[in-house]
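Field reference: sequence -> structure
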Amino acid sequence: MHWPARLGPAGNAGGGPGNGTSLATRTVTRPKRPDLFRVLLLNDDYTPMEFVVHVIMRFFNRTEEEATRIMLHVHHHGVGECGVYTYEVAETKVTQVMAYARDNQHPLQCVMEKK
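Structure field:
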């Protein structure tokens, strides 16, 4: 059996190694997705529930219904997730919530953990 010759870029037979042409390979590198961090509120016996709802709405852009649901989860389970963000965003939110709680004389604690 006879196989037809491969045509190179100029229309001549060839196109493989050893005949003057070569195939270039390119490695496509995809950037690694950034690590994500959960921002969590911790329950305490002193911070008013209304303040916690306000914090969730203000710093995590949640509706009053969502904020109330999260606050109740924190109240009943001791901890609740407010959102998942990249490291820099999560760190900023934790800092903002902690400063706001301190400025309003509440012991509310906010932490972040890797997802």
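Note: Strands lie at 36-42, 79-86, 109-114.
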